[in-house]
Design brief:
This protein is α/β, with parallel strands linked by helices. The chain contains five helices and ten strands. It has a five-stranded mixed beta sheet, sandwiched between helices. A five-stranded mixed beta sheet has the order 8-7-6-9-10.
Length: 221
């Protein structure tokens, strides 16, 4: 039995990305997701030789990340899934970030604005090769992040260029400056869940994963 055809989206950060099958596209364009996402979906489907009617499911990075970007991705995934009667797979954008590297143990951290970061520790499962959350994802000031002090870890995400000096410790092996959650990783994570028996959720059950409460004045910069 062939794998399902899943269209994956992530717009939680400055990077807007789409993936289906082995075709993916990503563009770093802050504040432009609403203009570029739908044309990107059309291009990726065309390059893969597919149309919306061929899809079996939609996968979406649901955050944490910029409020505006997360809302654009979630609302687009909902609209496409509702139009075709498809299930949806919500995927943590921090987990997608962790899945985008070969490093087995990672400290993911995205800039959350307001002097805070979205942070989480992920360790690769030896059997599946997929990142597994250690503890919980949280939003807090960078100085309040409690990274593990044992083992070796690699830093990923937009907060590392900003706050790496506060996170210097012997077991941080290095960090990657331009790492973003991307749709091809969202796709891999959703496919693994499907193969494990997860049937996804209804489009109306898809919700943003903000971690902190959304306030009207919050904007993605």
């Amino acid at each position: 039995m062939s794998d399902p055809i899943i269209l994956a989206i992530d717009t939680a950060t400055e990077a807007c990305s789409v993936a289906v099958n082995s075709v993916a596209e990503c563009q770093v364009a802050a504040n432009a997701h609403s203009q570029i996402l739908l044309p990107m979906i059309s291009r990726v489907l065309q390059r893969a030789g597919l149309v919306l009617a061929d899809l079996d499911a939609i996968a979406c990075g649901v955050g944490p990340g910029g409020f505006t970007g997360v809302r654009i991705g979630v609302s687009t995934a909902q609209a496409l899934a509702m139009a075709r009667g498809l299930p949806v797979y919500p995927v943590s954008s921090l987990q997608a970030l962790a899945a985008a590297t070969v490093q087995p143990s990672v400290l993911t951290a995205l800039d959350a604005r307001k002097g805070e970061v979205y942070a989480a520790v992920y360790v690769q499962d030896e059997r599946t090769g997929l990142p597994v959350l250690q503890g919980e994802e949280r939003v807090c000031p960078p100085g309040a992040v409690a990274w593990p002090h044992e083992g070796g870890y690699w830093g990923l995400g937009s907060a590392w260029p900003l706050y790496h000096s506060e996170w210097q410790q012997d077991n941080v092996l290095g960090w990657t400056e331009d790492a973003y959650p991307q749709a091809d990783a969202v796709l891999r994570l959703a496919l693994a869940r499907h193969l494990g028996g997860d049937e996804g959720c209804r489009p109306d059950q898809l919700e943003p994963h903000y971690i902190r409460p959304f306030l009207p004045q919050d904007q993605q910069k």
